[in-house]
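Researcher: Good morning. I'm working through a list of sequences from a screen, and I'd like to move beyond sequence-only analysis. For each chain I'm collecting a predicted structure so we can compare shapes side by side. This is the next one on the list. No need for commentary yet; just the structure.
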Amino acid sequence: MMAAPALAARLIDRLPPVRGRLVADSPLAPITWFRAGGKAEVIFRPTDRDDLAQFLATKPKGIPVTVIGVASNLLVRDGGIDGVVVRLSRAFADIRIDGAEVTAGAAAMDVTIARECRDANLAGFEFLIGVPGTLGGALAMNAGAYDRELKDVVVEVEALDAGGELHRLTLKDWAPRYRGCGVPADWIFTGARLKGSRGDGATIAGRMAEIQAERARTQPVKSRTGGSTFANPPGAKAWELIDQAGCRGLRIGGAMVSELHTNFLINTGGATAADLEALGEEVRRRVKAKSGITLEWEIRRIGSAKEAAHG
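Model: Good morning. Structure tokens for this chain:
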């Protein structure tokens, strides 16, 4: 259960000094793409990697740390998140291109990486124009779209462990898999080296325009949504299973299954995180009953499910 404001204040007083910003009892709904969910007990915006590493190394043991990016594929439950929520600052958003290699921070937007590579005539990153969110989130889930995945361009991954120690991981150490990787869940990605190939700028721009047009035609990109809700099961497509189970347009409270693309949930206005999660679970139940297949959540769901008694 989420701590009361007085307890949140005591938590922030127990935290080590930082060069970045610590804020207690911080609303998260305004920064999530769903525009739903509770508060962070404390949110931390580190100034740079050293600031974050020092904080992890010196914070009191037992205080949970949760990392969020732009919250594009995230559902924060209505009770909020206990402990410290880390949100990386602009210092983690640098993008540098040297020949065919790209060095990018974890807070760099995937679409920004795609565009800068386009401008540098660097091919292989076009698919990122169709991946909402930041590089850090993409690394955590080996994000992909349009027949490409992040593993196709990663050379080296950089992350801090729970104690603040820096690790540089090869592709093998990162161990990507479909919508996941082998890195411990409590590590924080801070950046990566990526590699593409020299290409023609007009051709790259054309492919990116095709992807954007396809997304606009087939996905509710202008709605309050969290991206793809469920991972595709082996040999099947989640949206087809959902459609076959009769879930297109299904509603619970202010939450609705998109009529345009059934693997998207939408906040039609006023939906709580509980509405959205309950709708997702009802979709899973109906798909299981219809096809025998259990859909696995792709959207990351975090925090406590019940609103605390804040008054």
